[in-house]
């Protein structure tokens, strides 16, 4: 069917207008993506800097019975001096949480089968396997059978970790913010879970 010149011109103008709108939309989306990436990078840098622990000066840690001195060498490794063994273990828990709080939380979740609470469905299969292995009940049984003198050190360590958690609520590691949750208090059971997870890994993954 023949097409009149005016209809052809209208179609051309319509296609041109649609092409311009499409190009504008693509450019707006690209700008939005770039701005989103820049803002996300700035937020992540700010969150990571804000989560850095205080390594200089003095801190009040109520879990200590006497003052403790923590010196870090050029590699960041802490060297702890205390008046007694209990304070040494408390300080060790505190500085370990300073350096690795999120890793500690993930390790206890990995061992007990609670990763899906923060990672979603992708971790359900792993959690089910860990619960079948009954790593959690094994940790409870090991603690129940432990000599009270030895268990005391796990309690000291937990008090040190929890002292840091209490002080770091406003500047937790960035991973907690990204996953939108806060760490629960550390328990002696959690230290046993991490130890059993190490034993499990060495038993199952050894070549």
TrEMBL record:
Transmembrane segment boundaries? 21-44
| Protein name as it appears in the record | Family S45 unassigned peptidase
Q: Which GO terms describe its biological process?
A: antibiotic biosynthetic process
- Protein keywords: Membrane, Transmembrane, Transmembrane helix
Q: Does the keyword Transmembrane helix apply?
A: yes
Species of provenance: mine drainage metagenome
* Annotated family: Belongs to the peptidase S45 family.
Q: Which GO terms describe its molecular function?
A: hydrolase activity, acting on carbon-nitrogen (but not peptide) bonds, in linear amides
Q: Which residues form the signal peptide?
A: none
């Amino acid at each position: 069917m023949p097409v009149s010149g005016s209809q052809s011109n209208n179609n051309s103008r319509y296609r041109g207008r649609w092409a311009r709108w499409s190009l504008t939309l693509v450019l707006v989306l690209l700008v939005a993506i770039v701005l989103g990436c820049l803002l996300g990078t700035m937020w992540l840098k700010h969150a990571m800097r804000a989560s850095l622990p205080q390594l200089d000066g003095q801190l009040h840690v109520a879990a200590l019975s006497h003052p403790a001195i923590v010196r870090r060498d050029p590699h960041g490794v802490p060297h702890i001096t205390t008046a007694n063994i209990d304070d040494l273990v408390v300080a060790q828990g505190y500085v370990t949480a300073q350096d690795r709080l999120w890793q500690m939380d993930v390790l206890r979740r990995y061992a007990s089968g609670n990763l899906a609470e923060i990672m979603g469905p992708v971790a359900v299969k792993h959690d089910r396997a860990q619960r079948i292995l009954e790593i959690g009940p094994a940790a409870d049984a090991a603690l129940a059978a432990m000599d009270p003198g030895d268990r005391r050190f796990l309690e000291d360590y937990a008090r040190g970790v929890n002292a840091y958690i209490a002080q770091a609520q406003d500047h937790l590691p960035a991973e907690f913010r990204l996953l939108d949750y806060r760490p629960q208090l550390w328990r002696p059971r959690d230290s046993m879970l991490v130890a059993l997870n190490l034993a499990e890994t060495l038993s199952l993954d050894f070549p």
